[in-house]
Amino acid sequence: MTTERPHATIDDPYAAVRENRSSAIPVLQDLTNHFCALMQWSVIRAALSGKSSRHIVDQFMDTVEKETPFRFVIGDEGNAVRNADIILANHQGPQTDDVGGVDGECADIARGTGGTEGLYAHALLPPHTRYVLKNYLVRIPRWTLVKALARLALLDWHAVKKELRQLFMALAFRKTKPIIVDRTMEKPAREVGAPARRNRAYVDRMREVRQNVAREICRTVHEDGKPVMVYPEGTRSNDGKIQGFVSEFFQTIVTDYILPRIKEDRPIRIGILAADVLSAFPDGVGRDVKAYNKPITLRGVEYNPAGVVMELEERMQRVGDEPLSEKEIKTYGRMLLMDARWQMANALTEILERNEKA
């Protein structure tokens, strides 16, 4: 089996960004904080408003372009994302419990949060797009009156604000009718046993969850006629490098999307949404976190799985409609995974190179 592109990714697309960070122009902290306040308010409006999330994001984009120094560069070459069935997007920013940022460490005075490119992506996505999201993003806090009063009595404003943020975020994301990745099973601790990848119960459970999510992605596309955006890395990248993709997603895309489309002679429409948020927000977005005068860029490009399609067509000529074996599913899925990952890394690198030359 062959493919037209090399199976490699760019190891460190942000090397030049780090190298030039000392000469980058920081944004005034008051303006950065104002931008964060606008973001928080847009989430609250999305949660409470009867208007569509798309309408609220459009208002948000108009407001930030007028009231903050941050520049948004949003392009969709040939409507690659707007016309796509499945949209593969990279995912950037510090994790909750890990040191993050494009510089490898968070700001001294504060730390932000990652994943904010998901908010900006609304400006590019087709209406009624469904997201693949972790379950904690749509979790409604289970407050009790006694618990709430106790926190207020103790003046634990931090806990109250944290729960309110979770509530508004969950209400806002639920409006997109997301496809949920159930991460409620606790990951085995490394210090008390084998690594998670060697814990059979955990591995089998997560494989089943991912397969169910992948089937729902393809069902949504085929039966509901709605596009789906998924983060194939499965989790955010602290330093912006394109991480490994979730194999179950691509195996199912081969069997439940690409192969049926070939048989039915229907177009295969997969888009890649490459986002650069870390050039402007190396330590995530948050109050008192340093930001830089760099554009926030989202670029949509078409992904053409020509190599996998060619291999599948040749196989069908040999054996007809005989189902794919488990080994073949894994092989074709990995071909698709590596090729899509290569193109996503390439699209991100091109964004960064353009920005550094500008």
Cross-sheet strand order for the largest sheet: 1-7-6-2-5-3-4
Q: Which whole number gives the mean pLDDT?
A: 84
Strand percentage, roughly? 5-15%
Percent of residues in helical segments?
A: 40-55%
Q: Which regions are unreliable across 5 or more consecutive residues at pLDDT < 50?
A: 1-9, 97-109
| Count of discrete structural domains | 1
Structural class: alpha/beta
From N to C, what is the helix and strand string? HHHEEHEHHEHEHEEHH
Give the C-alpha Rg. 21 Å
Using the alpha-carbon principal axes, give the shape.
globular
**How many β-strands, per DSSP?**
7
Summed up, the helix count is 10
Q: Alpha-carbon distance between the termini? A: 41 Å
Taking the sheet with the most strands, its summary is: 7 strands, mixed
Tell me what the structure shows.
- Helices cover 45% and strands 10% of the residues.
- It is α/β, with parallel strands linked by helices.
- The protein has one domain (15-96, 113-132, 177-357).
- The protein has a 7-stranded mixed sheet, covered by helices on one side.
- The protein is globular and about 70 Å long.
- The protein starts with 14 loop residues before the first helix and ends with a helix.
- Mean pLDDT is 84; it is low at 1-9 and 97-109.
For this entry, give a set of tags.
358 residues; alpha/beta; seven-stranded mixed beta sheet; 7 strands; 10% strand; globular
Summarize the structure in short.
This protein is α/β, with parallel strands linked by helices and 358 residues long. 45% of the residues lie in helices and 10% in strands. It has 10 helices and 7 strands.
